[in-house]
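Reopening this ticket.

The earlier resolution said the output was attached, but the attachment link was broken on my side. Pasting everything inline this time so it's all in one place.
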Amino acid sequence: MGIGGISIWQLLIILAIIVLIFGTKKLKSMGSDLGGAVKGFKKAVSDDEAKQLGDSEKNSVETKAEAEQAEATSDKK
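Inline output:
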């Protein structure tokens, strides 16, 4: 038994039919296109995370500066 009740022989037959229909060159180009899309997606996600981290650090620095300024003005009173 293989995946979901499909045996290894059935999977090999399906793979052979796919290769016959599309050809190896077409499958290779589809694989490289898919790989490029996955790389682009991962890069976009990591860029968004870096941007969010940068924004949160900037906000925390601003908040800290405001707190220090408020402390300084309250100490003067």
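Reporter confirms the inline version is readable. The radius of gyration is 28 Å. Helices lie at 8-22, 24-76.
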